[in-house]
């Protein structure tokens, strides 16, 4: 699927978010802005991907702490 100026799979975007979370470098509420800056996603695309990613944690019963 085309996100921003590149073709990314949702799996690749989720991996990016997982790696970002594991790095502990930022509060994950700031992740959409990081995706905009580093991956070229629009603000809406980044928010949509981030929301979908957070839903995977709800399904697994995990928190995002």
Low-confidence stretches: none
The beta-strand count equals: 2
Please give the share of residues in helix: 55-70%
Span of the ends, CA to CA = 29 Å
Mean pLDDT score, rounded?
86
Number of domains: 1
Shape: globular
Q: Which sequence of SSEs, written as H and E, runs from N to C?
A: EEHHH
- How much of the sequence lies in strands comes to 5-15%
Offer a few descriptive terms.
single chain, 65 residues, mainly alpha, two-stranded antiparallel ribbon, 63% helix, 6% strand, globular
Notes on the structure:
This protein has 65 residues and is mostly helical. 63% of the residues lie in helices and 6% in strands. It has one domain (2-59). A two-stranded antiparallel ribbon has the order 1-2. It starts with a strand and ends in a 5-residue tail after the last helix.
């Amino acid at each position: 699927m085309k996100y921003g100026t590149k073709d990314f799979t949702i799996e690749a975007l989720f991996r990016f978010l997982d790696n970002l979370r594991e790095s502990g470098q930022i509060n994950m509420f700031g992740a959409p802005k990081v995706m905009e800056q580093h991956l070229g996603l629009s603000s809406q695309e980044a928010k949509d991907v981030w929301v979908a990613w957070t839903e995977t944690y709800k399904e697994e019963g995990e928190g995002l702490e």
